[in-house]
């Protein structure tokens, strides 16, 4: 290929056609104190912003057209560095966002001074809509992931609750009780334990049937729940007709009062139990074994055995009563 140099007339014609026919905005500004004055702008530039008329200051055009501050910053960067500057613009035209890659080129005279800045912008708007679509799709996916994560977390929490709950009574189950007991022991907190047993429950089941027995267990559970004093208290179904209550930071005398109140409340329910062998009673009764663990002084097995021994003594001494065993500090 033979390199050919355009003569001045050809070069002028070339730039005139570029100015008129280009679909991209082209403009020229003159450097003035603390600003830049518009000298000329082609039709493509005017379509983007009709305020780009000769004599208008760039700062005024930006204010009227709502352009981003990157544009004026680009002019000053070009003036300071005397180098070409390239950056992105997102003007709004007739309610639609456009994307332009803007180029500013300094025009330097023979004295090394920038007298004018020539600018052009390449329209990348066709890439903007797909980009927005991808962002929207990404947002939808992120929302769905967040929703699915929440659903999974809720399902896991529900599963954990179910695994810690007695299906029949809705109370905490033995697994939950053991975990709570070990937490109290590890924290070194004192607590009382009440072992509660329904007197002659097998006779009740044999007389009324297992369906009535289940209903009876639910009634007893509902009655005992009212004696939980604070969120840390825990009433659990320990197994069969046996319940257990943990009372953290509860003095022995207060635990004894709660146990007596429980026994009286079951009396007051007057749940018929014609085969109850407690003397002079033909309704449901309970026996309660009680012990207190001083802070961090005993292992769980020792505390549970003491409460179980207290319940055994309550049964052996006639049932329908509270028996207490006090553990001493080590």
From TrEMBL:
Its cofactor is Mg(2+). It holds the Pfam family GGDEF. CDD domains: GGDEF. One of its GO terms (molecular function) is diguanylate cyclase activity. Its EC number is 2.7.7.65. InterPro entries: Diguanylate_Cyclase, GGDEF_dom, Nucleotide_cyclase, PAS-like_dom_sf, Rev_trsase/Diguanyl_cyclase. It is an enzyme of class 2 (transferase). SUPFAM superfamilies: Nucleotide cyclase, PYP-like sensor domain (PAS domain). It catalyses: 2 GTP = 3',3'-c-di-GMP + 2 diphosphate. It comes from the Bacteria. Signal peptide: none annotated. Residues 189-327 form the GGDEF domain. This is diguanylate cyclase. It comes from Aliidiomarina haloalkalitolerans. The lineage of its organism: Bacteria, Pseudomonadati, Pseudomonadota, Gammaproteobacteria, Alteromonadales.
């Amino acid at each position: 290929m033979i390199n050919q140099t355009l003569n001045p007339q050809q070069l002028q014609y070339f730039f005139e056609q570029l100015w008129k026919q280009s679909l991209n905005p082209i403009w020229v500004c003159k450097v003035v104190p603390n600003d830049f004055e518009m000298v000329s702008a082609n039709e493509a530039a005017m379509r983007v912003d009709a305020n780009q008329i000769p004599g208008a200051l760039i700062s005024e055009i930006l204010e009227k057209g709502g352009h981003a501050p990157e544009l004026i910053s680009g002019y000053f960067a070009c003036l300071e560095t005397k180098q070409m500057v390239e950056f992105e613009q997102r003007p709004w035209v007739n309610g639609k966002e456009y994307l332009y890659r803007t180029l500013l080129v300094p025009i330097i005279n023979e004295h090394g001074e920038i007298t004018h800045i020539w600018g052009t912008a390449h329209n990348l708007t066709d890439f903007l809509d797909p980009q927005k679509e991808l962002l929207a799709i990404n947002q939808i996916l992120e929302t769905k992931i967040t929703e699915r994560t929440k659903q999974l977390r809720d399902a896991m929490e529900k599963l954990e609750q179910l695994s810690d709950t007695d299906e029949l009574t809705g109370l905490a189950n033995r697994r939950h009780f053991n975990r709570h007991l070990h937490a109290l022991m590890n924290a070194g907190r004192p607590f009382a334990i009440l072992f509660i047993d329904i007197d002659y429950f097998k006779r009740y089941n044999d007389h009324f049937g297992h369906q009535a027995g289940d209903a009876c267990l639910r009634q007893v559970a509902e009655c005992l729940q009212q004696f939980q004093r604070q969120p840390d208290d825990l009433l659990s179904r320990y197994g069969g007709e046996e319940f257990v209550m943990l009372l953290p930071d509860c003095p022995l005398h207060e635990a004894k009062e709660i146990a007596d109140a429980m026994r009286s409340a079951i009396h007051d329910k007057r749940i018929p139990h014609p085969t109850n062998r407690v003397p002079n009673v033909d309704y449901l009764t309970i026996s309660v074994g009680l012990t207190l663990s001083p802070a961090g002084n005993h292992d769980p097995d020792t505390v549970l055995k003491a409460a179980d021994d207290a319940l055994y003594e309550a049964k052996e001494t006639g049932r329908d009563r509270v028996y207490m065993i006090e553990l001493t500090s080590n």
